[in-house]
């Protein structure tokens, strides 16, 4: 019986080797995946034992952890949640993290490699490990103005510092209360989440970066940029008929309310933009050709892929264009053209910054728990969509829009304001999307660029969105204008 | 500890002048046991300090009690089985001690969360069961002075085994069912899993029966496709074992015991006959039974489906345990969270079925592998005993018992780590559960007894052998 016994002994060795190999597979190879699995509450529980860092605006915490005597030690709180929920996101036991809570989780939780040395030091000094802080670029005055102006409507505001790309305001309306999603009571969290999910759209979606919509006439800025780069000037006279028959079809394209742009059937480019003449820009787009329109759009960041700032931004796109008829409609920002509100603000900011498009960023500084700076964001040039000269002409045209045209409601006493309105039909029966993108500042020195998007309002971008932009820019200039 | 006090001084090297006695290694055993006790007390202390900040006041009582158990076991072995393998007891001691530390750790977690209203402590109960296990261990060594005596009672013991196995199936569910498995006898607040004892009884019976019939089963065969295939009528025993396993599965919904019994029987049959064809037949029968069970029984289907993709059945639908177990193991990683540093209480029934996941989470891959290697040492020492012992019954019995432990460990740890479907067997010595612990102490007693016979010098210079046999018959006969 000894020969089979030896084989049994070897078989046992093989079986146990299998066990050990499998344990290696689970505990080493798949360790990170299992550890990071959203359903694995172990790491979360460990995290809650540690004081998570704060998210800070102008020196005031807008998300912070406070100690409780719960089993999960620290509770996340959001002072001024009505102002900052769009940006902070939430920190939930049940649903994980969103917003900055997610994008800067490494720093906030203290697990980031840049805090590694400190963690080791904590181990020796016996200090309780804690997370670092995230200082945002947001401006409290602009943020407050945006929230007030958007009260009661569905929409979004993004404001940028044109010279740096720093995000001054970011609001998606309606907001929600992140504290209720970040409590320690899973049942209450689920109930609140269900109530938010029942709303349309879900308020947790950050409309400024996570959704894109037809920009309507705002896109005429891109077509204008293409034309000016091609040798047009703001005074070049372009055809502006009462009606434009789409090439290769018998379908007519009208102006807003069927109005005529100019009795003569043609007008200077600056006037066409001022009154937002559809027939002129549709025809201009076809004249320039698809390639030039696309190039200009890409130069502003459209169709360049999504990116992180550090919130994830979805890609804006010109979409498919099948023939000149579609090109004509795309040139007035309809058809398949879709951009995020952030992209709208980037177009205005690049024009305001003499043609240099700055990379947008929301985080000014990352700090260690002792407030020493771990990382400071330096402004970066993302690209140069138009030359300084063309940018100057576009600025003049946009100022004309606000002074003489569809954007009058964005005017601010004592400052030069430029802008462009947009009204995009989403479908036949739905209400329109209302846009305004623009900039403001002392003459020749735009200090804030803004995009306002309002979903499904009655009226035009000039009626609804321009006043919102006006309030945000005025508030910012009033608070910061003197420096 | 008082462990080294007795030391190798009493080692009987100088006791038998003139006769070349092989080393008994009792001193080695004692030192190793001291080491095992040290590990256990250290683990308990670390648990307390990590979680509550200071060692619990009961640690002294616990240490003394735990030391006492192994001291008694050692002294009994030294007196009644002096040639026994010195590694068997220390392996068991470490596994039991580690289990106690882990159960204590989970007690604290459960009470901290206020989950158990009565704040019941399971670790002291387990220590009590270990003590009962010790009593069985001592009783077996005292009563069974020669393991061959068991073969004479094999049919009686086999019958007892079958009855034990069948009791829960016959009892009403109220007295026999816990969490869907009808494998208990619940009387007066006590829960006993008779299957744990039945397992050992049946292995004894298998060994005696197969030694008896091995020639017939081995020789009368035809060659088909390069395999020695037995005659149809000799298939009887394996079919009966298969049938019993299926009955266990049907009436007690106990996948684990069913798999365990059948596996042990087939391997013992192979060892007895030296015919690989029995393994092939066993695997075929297993495949047929498994397929049938999968088709017919919902609980088997659920186990298999959740094994294939546990995350698809998470959090509702049967995958919860395995997924939580995998989370624990993955989070533990290479070094583990440290005793008291993880969240092993997140895995349901962590104290019993999933204690290996708790060990993997807090002691890491290193800890889990160490446990596997301890089992490996235990099993291989058992198989070595089987190789060395001279009589066929002893060989088969030792092989069956040792392989039984190996097979059970493989099936349980495989289930917990996602290698195999979950079956609901306990982790020997480590898991919380009185029946399992006590029965396995009995199992080790048998291995100790056989290993003593295996390493004892051959008969001529030691006349007391037949006398022992007589003594035994006297004890057993009434």
Automatic annotation (TrEMBL), chain A:
Residues 155-473 form the Penicillin-binding protein transpeptidase domain. SUPFAM superfamilies: beta-lactamase/transpeptidase-like. Pfam families: PBP_dimer_2 (PF21922), Transpeptidase (PF00905). It comes from the Bacteria. Coiled coil: none annotated. InterPro entries: Beta-lactam/transpept (IPR050515), Beta-lactam/transpept-like (IPR012338), PBPA_dimer (IPR054120), PCN-bd_Tpept (IPR001460). Residues 52-134 form the Penicillin binding protein A dimerisation domain. This is Penicillin-binding transpeptidase domain-containing protein. It comes from Klenkia terrae.
TrEMBL record, chain B:
It comes from the Bacteria. Keywords: Cell shape, Membrane, Transmembrane, Transmembrane helix. It is a multi-pass membrane protein. It is found in: Membrane. Its main location: membrane. The keyword Membrane applies. The chain crosses the membrane at residues 30-47, 59-77, 86-106, 126-144, 153-171, 183-211, 255-271, 278-297, 354-378, 399-423, 429-448. Residues 1-23, 456-478 are annotated as: Disordered. Pfam families: FTSW_RODA_SPOVE. PANTHER family: CELL CYCLE PROTEIN, PEPTIDOGLYCAN GLYCOSYLTRANSFERASE RODA. This is FtsW/RodA/SpoVE family cell cycle protein. It comes from Klenkia terrae.
């Amino acid at each position: 019986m000894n020969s089979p016994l030896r084989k049994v002994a070897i078989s046992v060795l093989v079986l146990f080797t299998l066990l050990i190999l499998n344990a290696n597979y689970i505990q080493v190879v798949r360790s990170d995946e299992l550890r990071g699995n959203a359903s694995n509450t172990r790491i979360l529980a460990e995290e809650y034992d540690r004081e998570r860092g704060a998210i800070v605006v102008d020196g005031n915490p807008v998300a912070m952890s406070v100690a409780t005597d719960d089993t999960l030690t620290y509770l996340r709180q959001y002072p001024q949640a009505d102002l900052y929920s769009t940006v902070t996101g939430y920190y939930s036991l049940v649903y994980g993290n969103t917003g900055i809570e997610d994008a800067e989780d490494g720093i906030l939780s203290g697990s980031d490699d840049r805090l590694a040395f400190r963690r080791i030091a904590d181990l020796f000094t016996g200090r309780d490990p804690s997370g670092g802080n995230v200082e945002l670029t947001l401006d409290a005055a602009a943020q407050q103005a945006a929230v007030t102006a958007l009260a009661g409507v569905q929409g979004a505001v993004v404001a940028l510092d044109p010279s740096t790309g720093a995000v001054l305001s970011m609001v998606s309306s309606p907001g929600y209360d992140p504290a209720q999603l970040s409590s320690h009571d899973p049942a209450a969290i689920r109930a609140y989440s269900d109530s938010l999910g029942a709303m349309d759209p879900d308020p947790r979606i950050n409309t400024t970066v996570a959704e894109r919509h037809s920009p309507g006439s705002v896109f005429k800025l891109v077509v204008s940029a293409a034309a000016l780069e091609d040798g047009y000037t703001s005074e070049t006279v372009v055809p502006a008929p009462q009606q434009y028959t789409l090439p290769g079809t018998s379908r007519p394209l009208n102006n807003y309310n069927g109005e005529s742009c100019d009795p003569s059937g043609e007008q200077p480019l600056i006037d066409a933009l001022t009154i937002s003449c559809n027939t002129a820009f549709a025809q201009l787009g076809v004249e320039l050709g698809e390639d030039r329109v696309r190039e200009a759009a890409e130069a502003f960041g459209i169709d360049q892929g999504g990116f992180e700032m550090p919130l994830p931004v979805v890609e804006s796109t010109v979409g498919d264009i099948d023939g000149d008829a579609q090109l004509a409609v795309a040139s007035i920002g309809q058809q398949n053209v879709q951009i995020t509100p952030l992209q709208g603000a980037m177009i205005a900011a690049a024009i305001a910054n003499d043609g240099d498009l700055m990379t947008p960023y929301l985080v000014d500084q990352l700090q260690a728990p002792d407030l020493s700076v771990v990382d400071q964001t330096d402004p970066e040039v993302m690209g140069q969509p138009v030359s300084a000269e063309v940018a100057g002409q576009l600025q003049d045209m946009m100022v004309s829009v606000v002074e003489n045209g569809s954007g009058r409601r964005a005017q601010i006493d004592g400052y030069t304001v430029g802008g462009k309105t947009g009204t995009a039909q989403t479908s036949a029966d739905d209400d329109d999307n209302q846009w305004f993108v623009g900039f403001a500042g002392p003459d020749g020195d735009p200090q804030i660029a803004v995009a306002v998007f309002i979903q499904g309002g009655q009226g035009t971008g000039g009626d609804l969105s321009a006043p919102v932009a006006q309030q945000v820019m005025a508030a910012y200039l009033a608070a910061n204008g003197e420096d | 500890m008082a462990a080294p006090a007795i030391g190798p001084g009493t080692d009987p090297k100088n006791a038998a002048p003139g006769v070349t006695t092989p080393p008994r290694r009792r001193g080695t055993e004692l030192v190793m046991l001291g080491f095992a006790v040290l590990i256990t007390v250290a683990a308990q202390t670390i648990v307390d300090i990590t979680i509550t900040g200071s060692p619990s006041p009961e640690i002294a009582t616990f240490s003394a009690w735990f030391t006492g158990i192994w001291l008694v076991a050692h002294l009994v072995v030294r007196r009644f089985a002096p040639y026994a393998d010195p590694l068997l007891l220390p392996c068991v001691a470490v596994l039991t001690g580690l289990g106690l530390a882990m159960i204590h750790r989970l007690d604290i977690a459960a009470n901290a969360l206020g989950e158990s209203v009565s704040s019941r402590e399971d670790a002291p109960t387990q220590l009590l069961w270990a003590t009962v296990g010790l009593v069985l261990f001592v009783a077996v060594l005292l009563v069974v002075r020669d393991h061959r005596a068991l073969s004479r009672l094999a049919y009686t013991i086999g019958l007892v085994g079958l009855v034990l196995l069948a009791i829960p199936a016959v009892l009403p569910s109220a007295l026999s069912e816990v969490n869907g498995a009808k494998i208990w006898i619940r009387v007066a607040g006590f829960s006993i899993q008779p299957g744990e004892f039945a397992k050992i009884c049946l292995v004894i019976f298998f060994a005696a029966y197969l030694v008896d019939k091995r020639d017939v089963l081995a020789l009368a065969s035809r060659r088909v496709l390069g395999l020695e295939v037995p005659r149809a009528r000799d298939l009887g025993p394996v079919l009966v074992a298969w049938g019993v396993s299926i009955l266990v599965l049907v009436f007690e919904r106990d996948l684990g015991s069913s798999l365990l019994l059948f596996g042990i029987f087939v391997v013992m049959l192979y060892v007895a006959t030296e015919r690989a064809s029995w393994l092939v037949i066993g695997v075929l029968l297993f495949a047929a039974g498994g397929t049938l069970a999968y088709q017919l029984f919902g609980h088997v289907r659920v186990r298999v489906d959740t094994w294939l993709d546990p995350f698809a059945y998470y959090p509702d639908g049967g995958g919860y345990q395995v997924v939580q177990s995998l989370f624990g193991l993955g989070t533990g990683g290479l070094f583990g969270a440290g005793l008291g540093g993880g969240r092993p209480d997140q895995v349901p029934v962590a104290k019993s079925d999933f204690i290996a996941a708790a060990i993997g989470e807090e002691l890491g891959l290193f800890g889990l592998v160490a446990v596997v290697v301890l089992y490996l040492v235990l099993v291989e020492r058992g198989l070595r005993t089987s190789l060395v012992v001279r009589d066929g019954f002893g060989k088969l019995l030792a092989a069956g018992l040792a392989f039984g432990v190996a097979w059970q460990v493989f099936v349980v740890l495989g289930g917990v780590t996602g290698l195999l479907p979950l079956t609901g067997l306990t982790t020997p010595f480590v898991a919380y559960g009185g029946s399992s612990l006590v029965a396995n102490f009995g199992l080790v007693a048998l291995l100790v007894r056989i290993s003593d016979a295996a390493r004892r010098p051959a008969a001529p210079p030691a006349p007391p052998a037949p006398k022992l046999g007589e003594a035994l018959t006297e004890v057993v006969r009434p």
